[in-house]
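User: Please predict the structure of the protein below. I'd like the answer in structure-token form so I can feed it into my own downstream comparison script.

Assistant: Understood. Taking the following sequence of 115 residues as input:
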Amino acid sequence: MNARLDEEWSSFAAYFEERGDWVTQGLLPVVRLAHNDAILRGLSPFQSLSRLCFGRTNGGAPEAEWPCIEVDREGRFFVFDRTYPSGAEAVLLVETASPDEALRTLKQHLPASAR
């Protein structure tokens, strides 16, 4: 991993560890797993409301056409095929209580160039 991404992920994970709101605490298990994943830690993490998104840019908007993970107050994870609806509504790929399953599904739907 390059030094910039390593620092970015460390700061991002620390932010989630320190925060106490339901969103960051709900996404924390996914952030921890993603931080240690060889593919995902090579991407920039981005939080948008209750969603964990990924992209190639540092601190910028996530890639709109990339999948993302959303959490609800009950701790369920929803993996969508895109970060934001753009033209068409985002398609729900999976609903699960397992952070492992959520990340596995997200990684299966990343663009080939990101894998």
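That's the full token string. The CA atoms of residues 45 and 54 lie 5 Å apart.
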